[in-house]
Design goal:
alpha+beta
């Protein structure tokens, strides 16, 4: 009955978090949004009870205590979200990843294989946590998926599911190991993919330079678009094994965010001037070829030329930095 006795404690913890969040945000919430939050809160309270009853079916499991603790000294809000997840979801591990985007942090939450609860039933926990602290994102994986990803050399798991990023471990299972042969193969394949993409990008960049010298600024912008697209795509493909089929620089920026967040600052897209500049580059892929009225000034072309060059440099630096982290496998 120990787990059932803990239900009021867990629900009280949830209520205090919810009450604090509602009190501090009541003035900015629409009625529809508040109803959504009330519904999610109700689901969480019910799920806390269902989880406790499920645990009671396993007497041996119910007698175990969580061996791990959330790492002390975490940034503002992170500890609250981690504690909420630990108390309500009973994860195996939690990894914390700093992020330079709208969400300052991303949590990778690992739940045990055979937890007995569907992912769809666990998602309200993460939605509630995200509502409490919008600057923290959460992603859910099973421990089986983590082990397979480390064996297969999936980049995001290799770099972020490490002891350095670990903020919670229940201590019940050995820390997952990376297959060294797989890591070496991944490293060589990443080099091959990046080099292939960069060679194509450099070819377009060279053509852009020739067009600029001929004062053919419209065609030069098209070449710069292709050079930028292929550079970003090379970086994403190198570490992720593939990339979304798109010609949108804004979309590719999102994909490269976790690999090289500094690239986003080359085109911050945060002022009207910056938005217009990126719009010119974005639209060049189509308009430079099919819109006879599309014109680009020398000043705009010169500015975009410099930024495309900067992205190439940053991509090279980011790739080399990540590859050096894999040298442990040699």
């Amino acid at each position: 009955m120990e787990n059932l006795q803990k239900v009021p404690e867990a629900q009280s913890f949830l209520w205090e978090l919810y009450r604090t969040w509602i009190t501090s945000n009541i003035g900015s919430l629409t009625e529809e949004r508040q109803q959504e939050m009330n519904k999610s809160f109700g689901q969480l309270m019910a799920l806390a009870s269902r989880s406790a009853f499920a645990l009671e079916d396993d007497k041996k499991e119910s007698q175990k205590r969580e061996a791990g603790n959330v790492r002390p000294g975490l940034p503002l809000g992170v500890a609250d979200v981690a504690e909420l997840i630990v108390r309500t979801m009973r994860p195996e591990r939690i990894f914390l990843i700093p992020n330079s985007g709208a969400r300052a942090y991303e949590m990778i939450v690992i739940v045990p294989v055979g937890i007995g609860t569907k992912f769809a039933e666990l998602e309200p926990y993460l939605e509630f946590a995200a509502a409490l602290h919008p600057h923290i994102g959460c992603t859910l994986y099973s421990s089986g998926r983590l082990s397979a990803a480390l064996r297969e050399g999936v980049w995001s798991f290799l770099f972020y599911c490490t002891r350095e990023h670990l903020i919670y471990d229940n201590g019940r299972t050995p820390f997952p190991k990376t297959d060294m042969d797989g890591l070496l193969n991944f490293k060589e394949e990443a080099k091959r993919r990046f080099k292939s993409g960069q060679l194509a990008a450099i070819a377009f960049y060279t053509q852009a330079e020739l067009c600029f010298q001929r004062h053919d600024f419209t065609l030069a912008i098209f070449m710069l678009h292709q050079a930028t697209e292929l550079t970003l795509r090379a970086l994403v493909t190198a570490f992720n094994g593939g990339c979304q089929k798109t010609h949108s620089i804004r979309t590719l920026k999102k994909h490269v965010q976790r690999i090289a967040p500094e690239i986003s600052q080359v085109f911050p897209d945060d002022t009207q001037t910056e938005t217009v500049l990126l719009d010119i580059l974005e639209s060049a892929y189509v308009r430079a070829r099919y819109d006879a009225g599309f014109r680009v000034s020398e000043a705009e072309c010169r500015e975009l030329y410099g930024r495309a060059d900067k992205i190439q440099d940053l991509a090279d630096e980011a790739f080399d930095a990540h590859i050096r982290l894999l040298d442990i496998a040699e």
